């Protein structure tokens, strides 16, 4: 029996096993490749550094960053890309680059920079999982890091105002979503019938955007119009994460005493209750 | 995505005096800027649009986005490959019109891969590797300016690039890891190209121009060590690809080789 693999990552909500993209990528890959991961959800009793999350711990190794964790799992023979051709492997790298360049800035903005979203959803969620007094500092630092990244990579002249940068990154993100939708077409996964690394990355980036209930939702609305991408996320959630959702809902239900409370009811009663989409329009 | 141009732009034909501006070839231009400039030149050659290359020490400051190269066509000034492709398309020339939606998605994804890995690796090597910075970059970047401006500008640029590297998670990478990334990128490009003449078989697209710009520059630029060009040389179909484009679009048209040597 292989040494136990433990993944420390941010927890879930709104029907997701994790609301953090990078953690979700690793969890999805582990499910696809059959890696037996023991998932430790970070709460405010966790003593480690939160900057590097998700973190994979084994007997002799500590690995952080999704790309390195996936590499490590592949070396341990948990390879979800076994069936892919060389060309499909190359396509995987290219599409991941597309996600990071074109989609990630807008996702970061939606979660961490857009004021309404950050103060009503993101900050309270993360602060409740960080011990005092770090809970006062860390979310702010993560938000500044996100804004920094956006401005340094996309905020170059001739875009001088934050609004112009915002407009451009959302345009790029919508185009990226359209490209992904075209590429997926009617297939179940990006490369045939079995999910691979690319499916893990796309799921990790899209699922939080799709499911988390935000006040300001322009990118989410665009995503919901691309029904094959929504179906893609729902399929993965239903096929690979159905059993583990029960564990996450117990932790989160008490904390969601806000207007978004109805969303937590979805976790257990997903199949019997219709989903109420009350996202306020802009 | 990107700007949409008014009808007046589309109506004007491509002028004979269209110019491309870049830094001074022999003493000033750096690896990443040369790659970008060569990519644009290759793209315009592939579209059969004449362009004259002019070298100016202050090209970076003349550019509307601060990046080189930029082209001056009629009364429009456009910089960087992406916007230039859009501009040329507004004038009725396009290399990727024949592709279907899935192929266009693939082309854009591979262009991002080149920007994400190759361009970032070039920037890392130029500005974050102490040996290269000390021996080559500082001297070249500051060469048109008198002391102390040459040092100040070089340090300022270095600080800017390092800040960006840190923001995207490349700050802690070692040179070996960066070279590994270059190898991975070249492997992906090589696998995608296969035995075809161009990435989308018979006709070159802007992706071919971009890949050519970067690979050719890496192969022909002399740095403190050969490690970077060795990574590319491992893939024979990429070498053949560069040779093919050089012969077909540069030598055949009497332009001569665009190689530069950094001493």
Summed up, what is this model?
The complex is a heterodimer of chains A (282) and B (263). Chain A is mainly α and 282 residues long. Chain A has helices spanning 21-33, 66-75, 86-113, 115-127, 134-154, 162-184, 197-211, 218-225, 227-240, 242-253, 261-269, and strands at residues 5-9, 37-41, 55-57, 62-64.
Describe the structure.
Chain A: One of its GO terms (biological process) is mitochondrion organization. The complex is a heterodimer of chains A (282) and B (263). By secondary structure, chain A is mainly alpha-helical. Chain A has one domain: Glutathione S-transferase Yfyf (Class Pi), Chain A, domain 2 (Up-down Bundle), CATH 1.20.1050.130. Chain A has helices spanning 21-33, 66-75, 86-113, 115-127, 134-154, 162-184, 197-211, 218-225, 227-240, 242-253, 261-269, and strands at residues 5-9, 37-41, 55-57, 62-64. Chain A has a four-stranded mixed β-sheet, with helices on one face. In chain A, a hairpin with a 4-residue loop joins strand 3 and strand 4 (62-64). In chain A, helix 3 packs parallel to helix 7 (197-211) and helix 4 packs across helix 5. The longest helix of chain A is centred in the middle third of the chain and has 28 residues, at 86-113. Chain A is globular and about 45 Å long. Chain B has 263 residues and is of the alpha+beta class. Chain B has helices spanning 7-11, 31-46, 59-62, 81-90, 101-128, 130-141, 149-167, 175-193, 206-220, 227-233, 236-251; strands at residues 19-22, 52-55, 70-73, 76-79. Chain B has a four-stranded mixed β-sheet with strand order 2-1-3-4, covered by helices on one side. In chain B, a hairpin with a 2-residue loop joins strand 3 and strand 4 (76-79). In chain B, helix 5 packs across helix 7. The longest helix of chain B is centred in the middle third of the chain and has 28 residues, at 101-128. Chain A binds chain B through residues 65, 86-87, 89-91, 93-95, 97-98, 100-102, 145, 148-149, 152-153, 156-158, 171-172, 175, 179-180, 182-183, 185, and chain B through 1, 64-67, 101-102, 104-106, 108-110, 112-113, 115-117, 163-164, 167-169, 184-185, 187-189, 191-192, 194.
